[in-house]
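stage 2 :: seqdesign
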């Protein structure tokens, strides 16, 4: 199947529903997902761009996506590492939505459930729980940003990086025989931890020498994640 091709969405699994569809019964879920298209995108492909008009709401079904903003100098500030069940384009639940506030790009090959603005608005009017869930989800994202902001002041660079690795291991890690593997670069880890890539690389090298993790190009494997919990 072509990577950008839209197809009719299959019946969703419980894990694919995510928080946006919490408390909706099976018949409503069937109606919602019957109105979606299934879209596949290759790795390193833009999903949405900051400033664009929000034509669609995306629910990640498979793969990994990074959400980020660009500084004036063109550097990426990583906001979220999205996993199946996460949503892109919550603003499309509004009747007159503002532009997308961040960029989102695929990290791996991905599949999305996609609803156009008119369709998701019609569904939200029929099922107000959708809008309530969307508001709760937006607040949870805001809570993440607030916690990161306070951590810049209250925690060391080492603690922030350790926490980022533990969070990513829980949400986006893949359990292997050798440990928990996370597909992410040093630069992205640094941005996600609000530290420089140089500091991230230095700390990762130290933890590698201590046997806590193993570094490869674009990948970190946690060998002893419990060692990071005490930092």
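stage 2 :: out
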């Amino acid at each position: 199947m072509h990577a950008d091709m839209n197809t009719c969405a299959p019946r969703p699994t419980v894990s694919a529903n995510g928080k946006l569809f919490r408390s909706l019964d099976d018949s409503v879920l069937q109606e919602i997902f019957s109105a979606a298209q299934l879209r596949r995108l290759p790795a390193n492909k833009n999903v949405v761009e900051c400033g664009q008009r929000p034509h669609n709401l995306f629910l990640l079904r498979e793969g990994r996506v990074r959400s980020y903003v660009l500084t004036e100098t063109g550097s990426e500030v990583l906001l979220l590492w999205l996993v199946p069940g996460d949503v892109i384009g919550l603003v499309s639940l509004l009747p007159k939505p503002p532009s997308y506030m961040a960029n989102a790009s695929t990290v791996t090959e991905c599949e999305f459930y996609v609803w156009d603005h008119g369709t998701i608005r019609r569904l939200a009017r029929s099922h107000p729980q959708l809008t309530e869930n969307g508001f709760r989800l937006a607040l949870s994202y805001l809570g993440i940003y607030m916690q990161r902001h306070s951590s810049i002041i209250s925690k060391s660079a080492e603690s922030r990086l350790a926490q980022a690795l533990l969070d990513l291991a829980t949400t986006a890690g893949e359990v292997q025989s050798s440990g928990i593997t996370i597909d992410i670069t040093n630069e992205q880890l640094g941005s996600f931890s609000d530290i420089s890539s140089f500091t991230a690389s230095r700390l990762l090298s130290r933890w590698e020498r201590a046997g806590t993790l193993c570094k490869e190009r674009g990948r970190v494997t946690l060998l002893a994640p419990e060692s990071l919990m005490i930092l």
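stage 3 :: structure notes
- The chain has a mean pLDDT of 90.
- The radius of gyration is 19 Å.
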